[in-house]
Amino acid sequence: MDKAREIAMLVLMDVHENDAYANVSLARELKKSPDIKDIDRRFATELVYGAVKAGDTLDWIIKKYSTKLVKKLSPIVRAALRLGVYQLFFLDKVPPSAAVNEMVELVKKHEKRIGASKYVNAVLRTAVREPERAKFPSAEDDDADSIALTMMHPRWLVKRWIGEFGVDETKKLCAFDNEPAVLSIRANTLKTSRNELMMIMENEGATVESSKWATEGILCTKHGNMDTMKSLADGLWQAQDESSMMVAHILEPKPGELVIDACSAPGGKTTHIAAMMKNDGRVIAADIYEAKLKTVEENAARLGIDIVETINMDAREIGEEYEAMADRVLIDAPCSGLGVLRRRPDARWRKRLSEINKLPKLQSEILESAARAVKAGGVIVYSTCTMNHAENEDVVRAFLARHDEFALENAGQLLPIKKRDEEMIQLYPQRDGVDGFFIARMRRKV
Predict the structure, then answer these.
(1) pLDDT score at 139
(2) pLDDT score of 5
(3) With the CA atoms of 85, 224, 339 and 89 taken in that order, what torsion angle do they form, in degrees rounded to the nearest 10?
(4) What is the pLDDT of residues 281-328, one digit of tens each?
(5) Which helix (H) or strand (E) holds 186?
(6) CB 128 within 8 A of CB 100
(7) Of 2, 5, 121, 281, which is most buried, counting CB atoms within 10 Å of its CB?
(8) What is the DSSP string of 276-323?
(9) Torsion sign across C-alpha atoms 207, 41, 56, 352
């Protein structure tokens, strides 16, 4: 039995049937097979991330070869067909016979319903014989339906982006989301330097290069199983997106200060702040999810940080608990996450416009509360990983209109490498080549 395909099928089923996160479910399944070869680990990862990203496009293809509604199929059959179709239509190096035969065998093993494997076999073999049935619209078609189908994004989101960015940029943005995300890591400057860490990782068999955005950033374009890398276990680095690393630099924490991270988990920015403070001072890491705070604590311990104090608290209560106490406050606000769809393959299909429209109210409430915790002369930074104006500039502008005791400062000049003129930073994947991120910095007047 093909272990890589079996893992991928079980993860795909978990994602679609149980609303599991692809990365979490995949990591869980891989741990059940500690002896799996690196080549199979990579193949399973490629299958999972690719098939999850393809989403509705796979179901559109399946409908061309099946009279049964995809949603009416059993979970095993549905996952097997999606995975089989993904291999046939999107992976040129996979022999069609292998894609068909292995999925049929997996259905025989996991599905007890009579005829299930024969049905999967018939659908996939027809797809092999008659690929023209699932011919996509022309690449030149610029309507939202065609772009959504061919570039594997929800129609409502494509339509929204076309209205904001135009057709060409929307296509570039979708293409960026569909590219494999390179592992981005931050050197733990409490224990090592970026150059030293790069040499250590190369000795571990990784291929690395310096980030052009962050002084501590490294892009790891090739690596083995991260769980077995000694440099990770020794706390020499933390996985963190390049865009995310900008936030601590714009917050500009100093040794000896009291800093609050109001929405801390999983702790990438929290530990970055502590490292910039040289592990001297006090960092309060708050989050509404108590279980996620354990990850913050584990990361801090591994990185050799002992100034982080975790607290299970709704960010809307920060101001009351720590009124006028903090030198600096970071709000990495809950957001639509439209800037990081490349790294979260299942996220594009989970988003709902009705839910996104509710976010600015929550974000404003968090900002209002957190602002109370800033002492006179202190700084507050508001950030999101999205490109939605209503969640970004609009929230900040509305806050400043209500609070003349705060003044907007130029965030662009605090970027570690690529300085900008903008007061509020908005990074766009299709323009900047990194995850979409928004960052604004405000100071309470003395």
Answers:
(1) 61
(2) 96
(3) -10
(4) 999 999 999 999 999 999 999 999 999 999 999 999 999 999 999 999
(5) strand 183-187
(6) yes
(7) 5
(8) HTTT-SEEEEEES-HHHHHHHHHHHHHTT---EEEEE--GGGHHHHST
(9) negative
CA distance readout (Å), 145 to 59, 62, 155, 162: 15, 17, 6, 11
Terminal Cα-to-Cα distance of the chain (whole angstroms):
68
Q: Is 220 a catalytic residue?
A: no
Which amino acid would we find at residue 204?
A: E
| Cα–Cα distance, 392 to 383 (Å, whole number) | 8
Instruction: Enumerate residues 6+ apart whose C-beta is below 8 A from 278.
Output: 190, 255
At 19, is the secondary structure helix, strand, or coil?
coil
CB within 8 A of 263, min separation 6: which ones?
286, 287, 288, 315, 331, 332, 333, 334, 366
Tell me how far apart the alpha carbons of residues 257 and 276 are, in angstroms, rounded to a whole number: 11
How many other CB atoms are there within 10 angstroms of residue 421's CB atom? 7
Which uninterrupted H or E stretch holds 101?
helix 96-110
The residue among 402, 397, 383, 368 whose CA lies nearest residue 261 is: 383
| Residue keyed to tokens 């003129």 | 421
Can you spell out the DSSP letters for 221-282? EE-S-GGG-HHHHTTSEEE--HHHHHHHHHH---TT-EEEETT-TT-HHHHHHHHHTTT-SE
The mean pLDDT of 425-432, rounded to a whole number, is: 96
Q: Which two tokens stand for residue 170?
A: 């929307």
Distance, C-alpha 413 to centroid of its chain:
26
Candidate list 174, 263, 335, 385, residue with the active-site label: 385
Q: What is the DSSP string of 28-81?
A: HHHHT-TT--HHHHHHHHHHHHHHHHHTHHHHHHHHTT-SS-GGGS-HHHHHHH
Give the position of tokens 């639509």: 336
How would residue 113 be classed by pLDDT, with cut points 50, 70 and 90? confident
| Dihedral angle computed from the Cα positions of residues 163, 165, 169 and 174, in that order, rounded to the nearest 10 degrees | -60
Mean pLDDT of the chain: 95
Q: Is the pLDDT of residue 1 over 60?
A: no
Cα-to-chain-centroid distance, residue 344: 4
Helices and strands, counts by H and E, the chain: 21, 12
Q: Residues 51-56: what's their mean pLDDT?
A: 95
DSSP 3-state percent helix, strand, coil across the chain (nearest 5): 50, 15, 35
Amino acid at 430: Q
Q: What is the number of other CB atoms lying within 10 angstroms of the CB of residue 144?
A: 21
What does DSSP assign to residue 417? S
CA torsion sign for 94, 97, 102, 103 is positive
